[in-house]
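task queued by scheduler; priority normal; single chain, no ligands, no partner chains; default sampling; output format set to structure tokens
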Amino acid sequence: MKKIFFIVLVSLHIQQIQAQLFINKATIEFEVKTNVKKTMGESPWAEMMKDNMPNFKTAYYNYTFANNKSFYKLTHFDELSKLPDWMKKDDEENEWLTDFNSGIAEIKKNVAGTAFNIKDSVHKIEWELSNENRVIAGFNCRKAIGKIFDSVYVFVFYSEEIPISGGPCSINGLPGMILGMTIPRLYTSWIATKVDVLGIDENKLKKQPTKKTYTQKEYRGLLNDRAKEWGSGEEEKKWVSQFLWQAQL
């Protein structure tokens, strides 16, 4: 009887250690899939380009976190996507570094060949929780619905079993890590494929010096000024709105 009791105690202790590992640090891989042809709209230019484009762009990102700080960046594209280089470059340069202790996010964005460094408060998103649940990458998750940029809805599944208030890109603010996400108006979905608690590179979480930074408001103004040159037709306006949302995500 004592032997059985000892085994149970050891088992509980191992589970507690494993839980602490998840709480302290981990790297989460996300598969990010975008419907390329839908993002291009229906302008005459887009229709001409679509024949040479794949239906989907599939990319893989790593979300590394420790001590309530996180770093999110692309690792590679699915080789089967066969994307042209110009469609990959911005994604390859983008980075998100978030310090949830200080409430500051530092984001590096490459927009049509121009690099921007943004430093500002972490985005505040109002969430509505749902009773819908699912399991993602082995973790129990709960559904929530949020809204960004005044009119764009975000549908997510988050897990309180990974208690960092983070998620892909700049989406955050729930009582647990977002492991699944869909933004229909960007024709894009994010899903966690695996969670690794070993060999975490915490150097990624260190701030890098930058010569010039913009606030979110300043960055948004620069984007809007540039977008004024991209056409005024209905199809162009739709594409520009989608481009601006993606650039600010």
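post-processing summary
- The CA atoms of residues 40 and 105 lie 29 Å apart.
- The two ends are 57 Å apart (CA to CA).
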